[in-house]
Amino acid sequence: QVQLVESGGGLVQAGESLRLSCAATGRTISSYRLGWFRRAPGKEREFVAAIGRTANTYYADSVKGRFTISRNNAANTAYLQMNSLKPEDTAVYYCAADSGSGYIADIRRYVYWGQGTQVTVSS
User: Fold this and answer.
1) How is 41-107 classified by DSSP, letter by letter?
2) In angstroms, rounded to a whole number, what is the distance separating the alpha carbons of residues 16 and 23?
3) CA 24, 66, 69: angle at the middle one, nearest 5?
4) What is the rounded CA–CA span in Å between residue 113 and residue 77?
5) pLDDT in tens, 100-116
6) pLDDT tens-digit series, residues 48-84
7) Are 40 and 90 a contacting pair, CB within 8 Å?
8) Which of 9, 36, 107, 117 has the most CB atoms around its CB within 10 Å?
9) Contacts of 49 (CB under 8 A, 6+ apart)
10) β-sheet bridge partners, residue 67
């Protein structure tokens, strides 16, 4: 019942930063847990970060300390600030929404997905 659109991807060199946005329409995001996932070429989608309804955050070990997830319920938008980017961060990044409970990093719990935005990090 919610539609998600990612933006902010691009081509950067290793060590640089990007900020991704996920704009939601159709429903307010205040009742959803929100997650960021990524798919590298030839790989399955993997968990990157998630933020709960009360703004508690969770990160994959591979991005902890470099990425920050946030949400602005008034703007109906989620964000992923990505610093110190590495070539292995290259992937299509997706935002997703979940209205349930349980393990927040479980990709199987996310029902609503955006179309993805490409992030390419060169060395």
Assistant:
1) TTS--EEEEEE-TT--EEE-TTTTTTEEEEEETTTTEEEEEE-S--GGG-EEEEEEEE-S-S-TT-G
2) 23
3) 20
4) 14
5) 888 999 999 999 999 99
6) 999 999 899 999 999 999 999 999 999 999 999 999 9
7) yes
8) 36
9) 35, 36, 57, 58, 59, 60, 63, 67, 68, 69, 80
10) 82
Rg of the Cα atoms in the chain: 13
What six digits make up the tokens of 67?
């990425």
Residue 12, SS3?
A: strand
CA–CA–CA angle 41, 3, 37 (5° rounding): 30
**Amino acid identity, residue 78?**
A
Q: Which amino acid is at 46?
A: E
pLDDT tens for 10-29 read 999 999 999 999 999 999 99
Using the structure block, give the residue that is written with the tokens 């996920």: 22
CA angle 70, 92, 99 (to 5 degrees): 45
DSSP 108: G
Of the candidates 84, 83, 19, which has an alpha carbon nearest to the alpha carbon of residue 7? Answer: 19
